[in-house]
Amino acid sequence: xxxxxxxxxxxxxxxxxGFGAQVRAEVTMTLRRGESLLLTLGIxxxxxxxxxxxxxxxxxxxxGVDTIAFLAPGVIALAVMSTAMVGLGIATGFxxxxxxxxxxxxxxxxxxxxxxxxxxxxxxxxxxxVVVLVIAGVLLGWQPRGxxxxxxxxxxxxxxxxxxxxxxxxxxxxxxxxxAAANGLYLLLLLLGGMVVPLSKLPGAVQGLxxxxxxxxxxxxxxxxxxxxxxxxGRAWLVLIAWAVAGPAAAALTFRWE
Amino acid sequence: xPAAVELIDLAVRYGQTEAVRGVSFEAAAGAVTALLGPNGxxxxxxxxxxxxxxxxxxGTVRVLGLDPATQLTRLRARIGVMLQSGGVYPTMKAGEVxxxxxxxxxxxxxPNALLERVGLANVTGTPWKRLSGGEQQRLxxxxxLVGRPEVAFLDEPTxxxxxxxxxxxxxxxxxxxxxxxxxxxxxxxxxxxxKLADHVIIIxxxxxxxxxxxxELMASGGAADIRFGGRPGIDTSSLGExxxxxxxxxxxxxxxxxxxxxxxxxxxxxxxxxxxxxxxxDLRAGRQTLEDVFLRLTGDLAGDxxxxxxxxxxxxxxxxxxxxxxxxxxxxxxx
Lengths: 258, 335
What we know:
A: mainly alpha, 0% strand, disordered N terminus, B: 24% strand
């Protein structure tokens, strides 16, 4: 019987080892994709630098804070969206097309651990992005402040929401279509997300729609915590939680592995 | 000991189409079992049901005594899978992907030794997408084996592989068999089945049309005969009297003597030809090849698909053809 117990422990050990190796592989491959780095780090840094240099004409647009204090949380939200939705969606879409997901389904790693490893790898890349963007922001004169724990919870919720949307596309569309759709959605949510263009500059009806989307909810919440140092609006929490449940659920219900 | 793989009356349906209907066979440990059939015969569907990708609409599926559709979690560590194509991250290097797969298993083979064994030690640092088709197939094979499987499912393992690569793959498959692994492979190439398999299951249009060892299949159905090529229009009745058997001209210049190729009968044939000063183009005596069996069983396919499969089977089956015959062979009209 002891052999059986050892067997279970051995299997658990190998599951952990396999999961760790998978997370490492996912991170390595993400960092190896040049176009992915452009999207996840290049664009946020360029937007941060460009709009900081131009400056917003009116402080009322930024909630009464410096341009950099508005932009830095905004581009962090953008970075989270780019990795969790666009990067994950496109990579997974092509992996589905290339039969990678199919092949991994018959290894001991299994499908739930594969998806878990992908989300964990997104978290690792997001951490790298935040470190780089905070350093860039500080160099541009940003003084970060606020409740870090709430910020981490918000980013985690947003990651689930965006990953759900990315996997929804990856699991139902062809790789090329996912590529186009994810990039299109990225641009739309960038403009409607209050990340670099303040929501207050959008027409009223569009503003209402934008506030129901996860991008604006995350940007709003991060602006509040990290920018103005105020409390996160209750609506932002609700919107993020709703998307964090609905996105992955929709993906799980529709995902086709082949 | 129960068979490693057991299929009883498997049926698999895609919507209205029944891709597999009533397939039964067993695959034993320490043996190579080949599913042979034209493209679209249902080979991949059958194997993918064993791998847990497809759900049977009827029948019993057992791999190591477990049902892959519902007990795949317990099976995954004990089976190795080689898909027909793809299955690897395009940007991942050969060595990386093998090390990654090794990490999934409890007692994996050494990735470096395995790369050596499949002849890829020199492309360890090459990304999958830059490997040749044959190298990709050999890496896929290595990925199927790295976890020391008890059952290996190889879907068209030698498709698109150059001759040297084929030798490596055949060698590895034979080693697996000798180590006691149950190898189940599919192929549409007779040469592979004849060279590799202990047990061949010929599948056509979703059904098993024949099964047995290559020798059994070649001995079965159709009596032995003698075929030869010569000048068109020779006197077959005179020759028939001489050799003591029916002779007919299957095609102009292609003759069949419907009798066993005893030395006496072959001598009578050549003597008769010599007396009539007739040239002998080519001569084939003895039992039929696996190709003959395959063509006879799948040859009455209606439509173009069958014709394509026949052509490719003939074109790719150089080695077996050479064993038996020299020059062109024609098929007799079958009833």
